[in-house]
């Protein structure tokens, strides 16, 4: 792109009793679009170039690190939950507890909007970020202009599980040395990607080095996972979503199966479903134009 798109430096702000790190891409007076990342992921996983494409469509892109990820507050005092034990308890029909719930992540997000003076925004969430975005639209409809839920589900029981290989990658302890972390990252995203869009290992290693430098937290990722498990189904809450909703899902997603996207679209009145053939649990560069077109068109409904 020939024109320079404004990009603010990462900024730390106090919200909801913690600190959140965020940045913005695009003209400061453009309509805001808030991007919410997934499990253990960082704001830079919304790639700079992807955000620039959205900004070029006339949006002010806001992205941020969720609690327990990247450079936002890490809940080290909260301990390391045992995901296997939580799953076993859920399998027995028992309730489980977590250091915090998805509703706390929603409160963080609302606090960030308040701190930025954003009364209403378009919201895009990916995977766990999709769950946060769904609850934000359900509980704070006055703040959400449109909702886009990407590769997420409703959290209800009975939906197909991740593939064993994908689940193993999703829950494996993160490597703490740079070289092994880069290898682990490339392998993991090679598993997550779909057959039509193989993972670019060279670009992936370069990006993974940025992720590692900003900070990786196995226990933080697992606390986020615990929040998902302890929060239960969102299906009833989704009936309250009144804003225009777009659901995007890869047909070959091995982490959150396509059935989860279909269930989300069914749960929200009037939701539009866009499935992408051969896409897995990632947003490969090849699909950025289609996804950005869909989000921008949806936001202007």
Compact overview of the structure:
The protein has 301 residues and is an alpha/beta fold. It has one domain (11-299): Alpha/Beta hydrolase fold, catalytic domain (Rossmann fold, 3-Layer(aba) Sandwich), CATH 3.40.50.
Stretches with pLDDT under 50, minimum 5 residues: none
- Count helical runs: 11
Strand order of the largest sheet: 1-2-4-3-5-6-7-8
Q: Span from first to last CA?
A: 26 Å
CATH class: Alpha Beta
Class from secondary-structure proportions: alpha/beta
What is the name of the CATH superfamily? Alpha/Beta hydrolase fold, catalytic domain
DSSP strand count: 8
Could you list some keywords that capture this structure?
single chain, Rossmann fold, eight-stranded mixed beta sheet, 11 helices, 16% strand
Structure description:
This protein has helices at residues 48-56, 83-91, 102-116, 128-139, 164-171, 178-192, 201-214, 218-231, 235-238, 258-267, 288-299; strands at residues 11-15, 18-25, 32-36, 60-64, 121-126, 144-150, 245-250, 272-276. With 301 residues, it is α/β, with parallel strands linked by helices. The protein has a single domain (11-299), classed as Alpha/Beta hydrolase fold, catalytic domain (Rossmann fold). It has an eight-stranded mixed sheet with strand order 1-2-4-3-5-6-7-8, with helices on both faces. The longest helix is centred in the middle third of the chain and has 15 residues, at 102-116. The two termini are 26 Å apart. The model has no long low-confidence stretch (mean pLDDT 97).
Topology at a glance:
Layout: E1 11-15, E2 18-25, E3 32-36, H1 48-56, E4 60-64, H2 83-91, H3 102-116, E5 121-126, H4 128-139, E6 144-150, H5 164-171, H6 178-192, H7 201-214, H8 218-231, H9 235-238, E7 245-250, H10 258-267, E8 272-276, H11 288-299
Helix pairs in contact: 2-8, 3-4, 6-7
């Amino acid at each position: 792109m020939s024109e320079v798109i404004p990009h603010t430096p990462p900024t730390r702000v106090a919200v909801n009793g913690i600190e959140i790190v965020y940045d913005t891409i695009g003209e400061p007076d453009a309509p805001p679009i808030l991007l919410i990342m997934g499990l253990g992921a960082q704001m830079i996983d919304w790639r700079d170039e992807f955000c620039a494409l959205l900004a070029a469509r006339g949006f002010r892109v806001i992205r941020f690190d969720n609690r327990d990820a990247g450079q936002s507050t890490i809940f080290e005092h909260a301990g390391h939950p045992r995901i296997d034990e939580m799953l076993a308890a859920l399998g027995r029909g028992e309730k489980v507890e977590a250091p915090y719930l998805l509703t706390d992540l929603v409160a963080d997000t609302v606090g960030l909007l308040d701190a930025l003076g954003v009364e209403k925004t378009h919201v895009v969430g990916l995977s766990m970020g999709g769950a946060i975005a769904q609850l934000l639209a359900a509980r704070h409809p006055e703040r959400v202009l449109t909702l886009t839920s990407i590769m997420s589900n409703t959290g209800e029981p009975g939906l197909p599980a991740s593939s064993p290989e994908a689940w193993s990658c999703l829950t494996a302890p993160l490597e703490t040395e740079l070289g092994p972390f880069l290898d682990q990252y490339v392998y993991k995203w090679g598993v997550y990607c779909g057959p039509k869009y193989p993972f670019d290992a060279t670009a992936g290693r370069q990006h993974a080095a940025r992720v590692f430098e900003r900070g990786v937290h196995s226990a933080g990722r697992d606390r986020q996972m615990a929040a998902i498990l302890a929060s239960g189904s969102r299906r009833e809450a989704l009936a309250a979503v009144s804003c225009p909703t777009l659901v995007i899902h890869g047909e070959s997603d091995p982490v959150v199966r396509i059935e989860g996207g279909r269930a989300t679209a069914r749960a929200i009145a009037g939701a539009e479903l866009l499935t992408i053939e051969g896409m897995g649990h990632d947003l490969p560069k090849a699909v950025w134009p289609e996804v950005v077109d869909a989000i921008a068109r949806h936001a202007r409904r």
